[in-house]
Design goal:
cell membrane, about 300 residues, sensory transduction, transducer, membrane
Length: about 300
């Protein structure tokens, strides 16, 4: 672990010397994400993105065809427990792909990206903030460089392992649990046509899931980076100045939810600074609300400072 940490710091310092600002490094990482996911038409980081582009429409149509073929295969495989369950698993992958394609092509993703770009401007010019932003942009860049090859290797391995098993054991094996109707998969022609359809599904699945997961990691790394920036501002904030601003705040003009949120924040501020984290599944609306809450607190601290 120490070796990896040193290698990352060396690589991170090289990026800092190459790019004049953290914002340019982050923009480069976002551009790399767009290059990877261009194939499936889900380049949501671009301002002129539309769901009606030909590549994204083909992705959605392909998912619908995949689901139809999979449900047909279920009717044929009824009674064959192992193959039936395997086909159900592949249907779950299709449902996941459809949901991710819809959610991560939403306009909200681009709005969050614009929020992050504004945060990378660092108008205060503080060295600590600059280093924190460089770390965030470097992690975004590292995630792109790691996730892309991993997903491509996983897709290639899925295809190759089925071909190797077919050649080694002398029986036709497909990567997934579905097959095209009207084709005998026990013959060479039927197997090759089914394999070609499976290769198309692997290609679309890898590019589609890659697009969603790259956007997810980009947003999550930025959310963690915001907490680092907030800690830096809190440490720089003077106690007397904070008390003065709290008393000068027009509490009666704030909406009730904002009063409760700030009251809770001040209550916890009376205790020693202890940060904790955890993981739990949330939907996109909750994620966006939490994201905006962090930004509102950060903006308040910046104004006070």
């Amino acid at each position: 672990m120490e070796f990896l940490r040193r290698r990352f710091l060396c690589w991170r310092n090289g990026l800092e010397s190459e790019f004049s600002s953290a914002k340019k490094l982050f923009e480069k990482a976002c551009h790399s994400v767009t290059q990877y996911i261009w194939v499936c038409g889900c380049e949501r980081f671009e301002p002129n993105f539309t769901r009606w582009n030909a590549r994204f429409v083909f992705l959605m149509v392909n998912i619908c065809v995949f689901m139809a073929v999979s449900f047909w295969s279920l009717t044929v495989l009824w009674g064959q427990r192992v193959e039936f369950i395997f086909c159900c698993v592949t249907i779950g992958i299709g449902v996941q792909g459809f949901v991710k394609a819809y959610m991560y092509s939403h306009d909200t993703i681009y709005e969050l990206l614009q929020y992050n770009l504004k945060r990378f401007e660092n108008t205060k010019g503080m060295p600590e903030i600059h280093h924190s932003l460089i770390d965030t942009a470097s992690l975004c860049t590292a995630s792109v460089k790691l996730i892309g090859p991993c997903y491509a290797s996983m897709g290639a391995f899925t295809i190759l392992i089925s071909i190797v098993i077919s050649l080694y054991y002398g029986r036709f094996e497909l990567p997934f649990g579905f097959y095209l109707p009207g084709l005998d998969r026990a013959t060479w022609i039927g197997y090759l046509l089914n394999l070609a359809f499976h290769i198309l599904q692997v290609f679309e699945a890898v590019t589609g899931l890659l697009a969603a997961d790259m956007c997810f990691f980009n947003l999550m790394i930025n959310a963690i980076g915001q907490l680092d920036v907030m800690i830096i501002y809190l440490k720089k904030l003077g106690n007397d100045e904070l008390i003065r601003e709290v008393y000068n705040a027009p509490w009666n003009e704030l909406p009730i939810p904002a009063q409760k949120a700030l009251g809770m924040l001040l209550q916890f501020a009376q205790n020693p600074v202890i940060l904790s984290d955890g993981f739990a599944p949330i939907d996109l609306d909750s994620f966006l609300e939490i994201y905006k809450k962090i930004y509102s607190y950060l903006a308040m601290i910046q104004n006070i400072n």
